[in-house]
Amino acid sequence: MKAPDYVTEIARSLARHGHEAWVVGGSIRDLIIGRPAYDYDVATDAHPDVVMLIFRRAIPTGIKHGTVTILTKGHQVEVTTFRSDGEYTDKRRPDSVTYASSIHEDLARRDFTINGIAFNPLTGVTVDPYDGREDIGRKIIRTIGDPGERFREDGLRPFRACRFAAQLEFDIDERTFLAISDCLDMTSEISAERIRDEFVKILGSRLPSVGIDLMRKCGLLEQTIPELLTGFGVRQNRFHRYDIYYHNLYSCDAAPHEDYRIRIAALFHDIGKYHVKRDIEEGRSVFYNHEMIGAGIAKRVMRRMKFSNNDVRLVAHLIRNHMFHYTRQWTDGAVRRFIKKVGFENLDPIFQLRRADRIGNGLKKGESNSVRNLKGRIEKVLEAENAITVKDLAVDGHDIMKEFGLKTGPLVGKVLSSLLEEILDNPDKNSRETLLGIAREVLAKQKKEAPTA
Hints:
Layout: H1 5-16, E1 21-24, H2 26-33, E2 41-44, H3 48-54, E3 58-62, E4 67-72, E5 75-81, E6 83-85, E7 97-99, H4 103-107, E8 118-119, E9 126-127, H5 132-138, E10 140-141, H6 147-153, H7 157-168, E11 171-172, H8 174-181, H9 184-187, H10 192-203, H11 208-218, H12 220-224, H13 244-254, H14 260-268, H15 273-276, E12 278-281, E13 284-286, H16 290-304, H17 309-320, H18 332-342, H19 347-360, H20 369-383, H21 397-404, H22 410-425, H23 432-449
């Protein structure tokens, strides 16, 4: 095991001033597992004020808890003084810390055995008082000490247990897992932002379904996203292998892990089915408008979890539009309307969602022929550089107002929308003269249909 040179140099600087330096936390765990390690943390017996004096580029990012961040060679390394924690009245952070004298005392306060390992990059010595390496070998998540005490100290730890199980593809020790259900009163007090961050990390794992289903089994899912549970045990039809709940989970697995928003869209894409399910004959059910209901539910869940407005809008938009049905009978105008409705920038995400939906079905694989054919049609339409949005029209709102003596208002928008509808079917009409002629007809019709006083 070897730490990066920039981390070893920090340890060497501390040692020159007579202080210990141990690499701790997830980076050591990942190095032992053989995973790439990115964020390195150092524990030391030097107090924060001393660390600030030793290093020229040091920022007191968590001075209350003994943490100083060192900036070195394009990296940031948190250096924290050995400590033991006081009470956790906010269920997340200790009210106070007491500086400890040894690495053993410092490791005793940590959450899981796999995170309770320390490595000295100067001597090569590893300290592992809680058999973390053995648990890594067994692929087990186990708390340091009594799981109930660990979880009651910090209500985020149960979420972290499920997250580590998904990320590392480990099992949670039975005693540790059973203790989560007894600590739900503590987890309920954790902020939505912190739960969201753990949830996003679960979504970044190879199989998010592992972490999410563990949350279901221990009660965390019912507490945080009960909407997902409405589909548990609810059968669909003969075209689906799984119930609604597992179909959503496995669709999430099949979505690209690089974009958590598409994975959220996949996880929630059929969340509205429970609310609209109608059995029309044995083995056959219909779910009309479930995409509209699902988009609304997804909005509520994401807002509750404090996702950004942009994330909420994108996920709801993808869910709302994921039920398109392409056939070869679509005209080029229909293809242009599809692009306009979905948005050019959302074409790849909507197709990725459809692919995930198909794989999550359990009976099919990969992308459907109809989607491949639609992609080909879209490519041809785009290559022709035909109008797709109002911005592509040969006239704009200023042209309409100047030509017809109109003021800024909704009428100008209506005229532009009418022009776009015409051009979607007849792109060869996208010239200034032709569009102004069409606009004149639209305005005449508007005037004729306007109610008289």
